[in-house]
Amino acid sequence: MTDIGLIGLGVMGKNIALNIANKGYSVSVYNKTSQKTKNFVNNEAKGKDIHAYYDIESFIGSLSKPRKILLMVKAGEPVDNMIKKLLPHLDKGDLIMDGGNTYYPDTTRRINELKETGILYLGMGISGGESGALNGPSLMPGGSREAYDLVEDILLKIAAQTEAGSCCTYIGNGSAGHFVKMLHNGIEYGMMQGIAEVYDILRKVLKLSAKEIGDVFEKWNGGELNSFLMEISYKIMRHMDEETGKPTVEIILDKAGQKGTGKWTVQTALDSGIPAPSLSAAVEGRILSYFKEDRTNLSRKIIKKHVETKYDKEKIIKDLENSLLFSNLILFSQGLWIMAEISKINDFDINISEVLKIWKGGCIIRAKMLDFLREIIDEDKQNANLLNNEKTLKFLMDKLDSVKNITNIAKDFYIPALVHNTALDYFFSMVEENLPANLIQAQRDFFGAHTYMRIDKDGVFHTIWE
Ligand SMILES: NC(=O)c1ccc[n+]([C@@H]2O[C@H](COP(=O)([O-])OP(=O)(O)OC[C@H]3O[C@@H](n4cnc5c(N)ncnc54)[C@H](OP(=O)(O)O)[C@@H]3O)[C@@H](O)[C@H]2O)c1
């Protein structure tokens, strides 16, 4: 009898299985395409406590009770299909975990569908990609506490470890785990776009080579901007394409792909009524990148009147560093505000400080900034909007001139800087007492009799405008 079963031997599943076995647990594995299972046990898993099964019945028969099964299959229908196949063979108290990038409302639905069967269910976000899965990912399990308790030992051990502890914690009720993973990815899109915009300015304004940009990124990575994404970015800048002898980054087509988690984050933000323009801008940046043909044609039709470079290189590099810190903080503040709001609406009961702790290792958005954010959350638990905190405000104000300078330079050079610009406009909106929404209210009342409120007395008013 084995300790745990894993279904889905793709990039992630194989490495999670190896990780679990490396921590001293026995693992049963099953994959839809049996050849992949054979290859796995005869190669990477050879000599490990990993056992292959080629039909669901014998796979389930190999598991010690209560059975624990981790699904690492493609999100969506494959998860529903696998649950359907497993159910007839499972008993009350057995546990199914979905470790894929599932849209959290799907997890809510599955939990509700399984309620009557007595089968326990966990929706677990996993971050860290291929190497994280093998060496220690950040794990975001959500569902019933009873379900979590069944696998806590294993999860705590296979997760990344930092000086703050294991990068796994019980996230909360229902689909809280998949919700938090979705938000993680939304913030990830933003951080990636922010770095890409800085890269664009460094190459187009300062005319730095990829190698020189790598040097700048490496230096930043040694300071406040330390993060996994900064680290891989400097390594990317130095990588050379063997075929052409050029930096690899320069031969990659500028069309960014996406799998939907960023879009879901923005959709969730819009539904919750929490402003998240920078998270949204990052998704829009990828969508815009896709229109290569239009962009190429249009770029040849307009004359870009560049201003003469009269900038101080060192100052720009310092301002870019500050602008990235500013936009990263805004991205996190937008994401964490959505987290607080959705947690309240859905009774997820998410402990945001704990989430920040498990994001410190293993995951794609691990960054030094998380310590600062955690300090703020811990001292200011009531503030869903981090900008209400004095330390946050000071952090942003200290960098404001740099962000203004960078966004102005970007404009001078016709360089789009969606995340940096929206971060600045978000900040300006948040610190502005008088927005022009009074005119919008007047327009709405003019054409639709939608009424408005006044600043000088209570009540709802309508004007006959002409
Ligand atoms: N890659 C990452 O960095 C990463 C990070 C975090 C989370 N995730 C999530 O983890 C999950 C697995 O990702 P992956 O990168 O390992 O994917 P992958 O390499 O594409 O593997 C997909 C797995 O799903 C199985 N599968 C597909 N359709 C199926 C079906 N109808 N029924 C049963 N099994 C089916 C495949 O089986 P066959 O071999 O038979 O086709 C394969 O084992 C996804 O939800 C993904 O979004 C990925």
From TrEMBL:
It holds the Pfam family NAD_binding_2. PROSITE patterns: 6PGD. GO terms for biological process: D-gluconate metabolic process; pentose-phosphate shunt. It comes from the Bacteria. NADP(+) binds at G8, L9, G10, V11, M12, G13, N31, K32, T33, V73, K74, A75, N101. Keywords: Gluconate utilization, NADP, Oxidoreductase, Pentose shunt. It catalyses: 6-phospho-D-gluconate + NADP(+) = D-ribulose 5-phosphate + CO2 + NADPH. One of its GO terms (molecular function) is phosphogluconate dehydrogenase (decarboxylating) activity. Substrate binds at N101, S127, G128, G129, H184, N185, Y189, K259, R286, R444, H450. The active site is at K181 (proton acceptor), E188 (proton donor). It is an enzyme of class 1 (oxidoreductase). Pathway: Carbohydrate degradation; pentose phosphate pathway; D-ribulose 5-phosphate from D-glucose 6-phosphate (oxidative stage): step 3/3. Residues 177-466 form the 6-phosphogluconate dehydrogenase C-terminal domain. Coiled coil: none annotated. Homodimer. Belongs to the 6-phosphogluconate dehydrogenase family. Catalyzes the oxidative decarboxylation of 6-phosphogluconate to ribulose 5-phosphate and CO(2), with concomitant reduction of NADP to NADPH. This is 6-phosphogluconate dehydrogenase, decarboxylating.
